[in-house]
Amino acid sequence: MLQYLTLPVTPFQQNCSLVWCDVTKDAAVIDPGGELPRLLAAVRERGLNLKAIWLTHAHIDHAGGTGQLAREQGLPIIGPHPGDQFWIAGLAQQSKMFGFPPAEGFTPDRWLEDGDTVQIGRETLAVRHCPGHTPGHVVFHSASARRAFVGDVLFAGSIGRTDFPGGNHQQLLDAIRERLWPMGDDTVFIPGHGPESSIGHERQHNPYVGGSGA
Q: What is the CATH number for 23?
């Protein structure tokens, strides 16, 4: 069974998620925005074997620690979608703009496309491309665990911002309705910021997209 731990990191309180297979103890870290010693301590405390970095998108609070973590731990960087290449190229500028520690540059070892899968231990998660917040945003869905790691696409009671370069409000709404709602009402999602919620609750009550789509 897939297990996970959510660790809010950086001044933006970005939800970095440590996910692992409880059989093999192999783990991946989703969106290591910063506070790497804290993340690695959580890995050690649980006796996990960190195998990969998965990125939903390349905003600084989600990707700022990626280059350093990959270099120091010898980890492959998986994701996001190629649409976020320009955000990766601009990480140093993002660091200065938002007062983050200087971010190391990186090139993903594997770009992700809609319909791809990622694997950790015996657990396989589906990849869905959900542009709108950024052009290359992806989400990771475990149908067996009924969990989805959705970055900044959808929040409890809100949706991702679309006023950054490459943002598109209609694309975001379409992605939520076409890619997230079909995951099922009982699917719990872990957003990039704030508390967890369920697809069903947001589909019915979210003021930005509530009541839209089946």
A: 3.60.15.10
